[in-house]
Amino acid sequence: MADLFAPEWMTSFQDVWNNEAGLSDELAKIGFSSTIAYGYLGEDAPRGVLVVENGKAVSAGAFEGQELSWDIRASQDNWTKWMSKPPGMMGLGIAYTSRKMQFLVGDYGAMVKDPRMAGPFVKSFAAMGKA
Fold first, then answer.
1. How far apart (Å, rounded) are the C-alpha atoms in residues 101 and 89?
2. Which of 101, 127, 99 is nearest to 22 (CA)?
3. How far apart are CA 102 and CA 17, in angstroms?
4. CB-based contacts of 106-113 (< 8 A; 24+ apart in sequence)
5. 7-130 has which CATH code?
6. I need a labelling partner for 76 at 20 to 30 A (CA). Which of 5, 7, 66, 86 fits?
7. Could you tell me the superkingdom of the organism this chain comes from (predicted)?
């Protein structure tokens, strides 16, 4: 397995994202388009970026200064834990309120209040575990 959020891993994540039931298809229904970055707490920049257009991941790779819609950070241990046992909405809420998961860009509160986005967000962790 490639290092978490390395370009090779991000490409694998892109493929899984597009084939994960309840993820890209559900986001396509609401025209979801975003540039999503992933990385580790305490680092200056995220490591990997996934570009999503109308629900479908169209590119993935290293962060190279792109303008971001979302920048999601956590410790490597927490990312690994969530990928092996994807959290539900309650687990994500606890991770967010305890600051184990931080959104340096993006509005977590608005996202979780919209079930059309919250469900796929939860499913993205299952997809990560398959990348």
1. 13
2. 127
3. 21
4. 106/68, 106/69, 106/70, 106/71, 106/72
5. 3.30.1050.10
6. 66
7. Bacteria
In tens, the pLDDT along 25-77 reads 999 999 999 999 999 999 999 999 999 999 999 999 999 999 999 999 999 99
107: number of CA atoms within 13 Å, CB side? Answer: 5
Question: What tokens were used for 98?
Answer: 């305890």
Instruction: Give strand pairing partners of 34.
Output: 52
Place of tokens 């990928």: 83
Domain map (residue ranges) of the chain: 7-130
C-alpha 52/C-alpha 92 separation (Å) is 21
